[in-house]
Each structure stands twice: as structure tokens, then as C-alpha cells.
Amino acid sequence: MYSWLTPVWQPLLQGVREGRLGHALLIKGMAGLGKGELAAELATALLCQHTSNAPCGMCHACELNAAGSHSDLHVVGREGRSIGIDAIRELGRIMSESARLGHGKVAIIERAELMTEAAANALLKTLEEPAGQATLILVSSRAERLLPTLISRCQQWLVPLPATATALTWLNEQGVSATAAALSVNQGSPLQTLEYLRAGADDKRLTLLAELVTLGESPSHLARVQSMLLEQPVHLVWVQLLLQDALQTGLGVNAPLRLDDCRDQSARLARLGAMRLHELGSALLELRRSLQPGQGRPMNAGLQLGQWLHRLQQALTHY
Questions:
Q1: Is residue 194 part of a domain?
Q2: Ranges for the DNA polymerase III delta subunit C-terminal domain (predicted)?
Q3: β-strand partners of 136
Q4: Does residue 212 share a domain with residue 118?
Q5: Bridge-partner residues for 135, per DSSP?
């Protein structure tokens, strides 16, 4: 188990051993923290036949869990873009049956925020009438999207972000060269940062931002920069963070930069002045919102971005 999960895992485990956990739990926190692994470990402890020493790792239930074949553990939500009412109704039916091994049943709903409204209401009925030794574990990276009535019926367990030093130590142990900036652009998530670094995205970020701030001197870079920014929505996030750092630098705010490996670029943009940076940042934020999933990709996304880059290029040319 990841080291940063220990502060949450220990009280959960104590609750299992002392029989103090409710029949419904919500494990929440941002993506990339290992909440799914925490839920799986909790399920193993709940199904262990030696409750006072759970998870013992030696009983038949623990062996079945290790093999991924425990008949009283059910997981939904790993695939698909949504979790429909049929899946939740079937889960409710299964949970109402007697445990095959006689030590309770556990259901894990991963990515619980993907439940449709009908599915969430169906689950609500299951929670209102819990069956025997049945425990339901919801896992969510966007808990605010769950029905308030659903949340109110769950014990809530927040998985916080690990300290930067803890995350960087773990990342370096995985064989990648991690920096605070790489962690920052991934919102502090160690697992997302690991994937990001292994994909070589950090080099792309540094290249993109270096070319962005030289648009005033090298107009020919504009098409290339525009193409790179349209590849993935997160590339616009990199630019947004750089603009924030530039504004902070220009105002002389004494606080750590989000992208501390782009200090030169921040200083260069800071010369544009606070008003211009604020205008550019607001326009970029609006552009990002228009490109959010679910909003539909505008037919003129490239045109809008091109106009924004042209504004930046003009500002860099004349400061």
C-alpha cells in the first residue's frame, strides 16, 4: 500500500477490528492517490475470517481475495463512461443474498460519480434498507457530483494529498527524475505524475513553454505552439500555470512558484504587466472552459486558440 494512505488506512483498519464501521462508506479524494487500492484492502479486511486480526493473510477468505476470486466481493464501475441503473439494481440483488462464506458481503463502486441519477436513486434505496452483514464502499474523485442524500448516508473518508517531499521521495524510488514542478502540474498526485513522467510529457511541457514566450521573436513558432496546445487540454493548463507564476512574479508576491523550473519564462512574461497578464489569463480560462468534456468541442477551437496566441504574440512583440 502507498505510504501516504497509512493515515487513512490505520483508523479504517481499527474500525474493522472493533466493528465500528458503518454499512456504507465513501472514500474520496482527487484522482491518482490510490483510493481503489485502499478500498480493495478494506474489503479484504472486512471479509477476513479473523476479524480481530484482519486482514490475517492466512485464512481462506484472504487467500481467495489474493487470488481475486472471493465470491462475496463485488466490484462495479471499472469500465464504461457511466454506471447505469441495471448495474446498481443487480448489485442490490446480490447484496441482499446471504454470504456464501458466511462472513458478510462487500461491494465496491469505483468512480461512483459516474452513476446516472436513476442509478444513484436505486442505490439510495439499497442504503436505506441494508441487508445483514453487507458493506458498500463508494470510491470517488468527484464526490461533489454525488447526490447529497447519498453522501449523507455514508461514512466519509478523505484521502488527502501527500506532502510534496513524501510524493517526490516515492516518485524517485520508482526510477523517475521527479521535480516539484512536475508534481504541481499534476495537482500533487503521485500516480498521475508517475504516468506523466514515464510518457515523456515533462520534456514536452518545457519545450512548449519555452517556445511560447519567444513568439514575439519567432513568429514562425506560432503554428507549432498552436498544434501542441490543441493536442490535449492539459497543455492549456501548463500555460495557465505559467501565466499565474508570471503575474505573481510581476507583483512581487513572495510565494513559491507553481512551475519553479520555468522561472526565466515567468520573468519574461512578467514584463507584460499585471493588467495584460490578467486579461490573457482570463481569456485563456474561458477558452479552457469551452473545451471541457461534456461541453462539446467547438468547431472553431483552433481559431479561438489562434486568436488568443496572436494576442499573446502581439503583446510580446511590443512590450
A1: no
A2: 202-313
A3: 24, 107
A4: no
A5: 106
Give the span between the Cα atoms of 49 and 116, in whole angstroms: 35
Nearest of 20, 26, 16, 25 to residue 47 by alpha carbon: 16
Nearest to 111 by CA among 35, 187, 45: 35
Could you give the number of structural domains in the chain?
Answer: 2
Which residues of the chain are modeled with pLDDT < 50? 295
Nearest partner of 270 among 256, 255, 285, 251, judged by Cα: 251
> pLDDT tens across 128-170, in order?
876 778 999 999 999 999 999 999 999 999 999 999 999 999 9
Helices 301-318, 274-290: inter-axial angle, 10-degree rounding: 170
Other Cβ atoms less than 10 A from the Cβ of 273: the count is 14
Query: What is the domain range of residue 239?
Result: 200-318
Instruction: Please tell me the predicted confidence (pLDDT) of residue 103.
Output: 83
Angle ∠(233,236,237) on CA atoms, nearest 5 = 95
Residue 132 in 3-state DSSP?
A: coil
Using CA atoms, how far apart are residues 95 and 312, in angstroms rounded to an integer? Answer: 58
pLDDT of amino acid 298: 52
Full-prediction pTM beyond 0.70?
yes
Residue 278 DSSP SS3:
helix
**Based on the domain organization, do 29 and 136 belong to the same domain?**
yes
CA distance 145 to 164: 28
What is the model's pLDDT at position 130? 67
Cell readout for 179 is 521535480
Q: CA–CA separation, 222 vs 139, rounded Å? A: 42
pLDDT digits (tens, 9 = 90+) for 84-101: 999 999 999 998 888 888
Do 272 and 139 belong together in one domain? Answer: no
Phi, psi of 203 (to 5 degrees): -65, -40
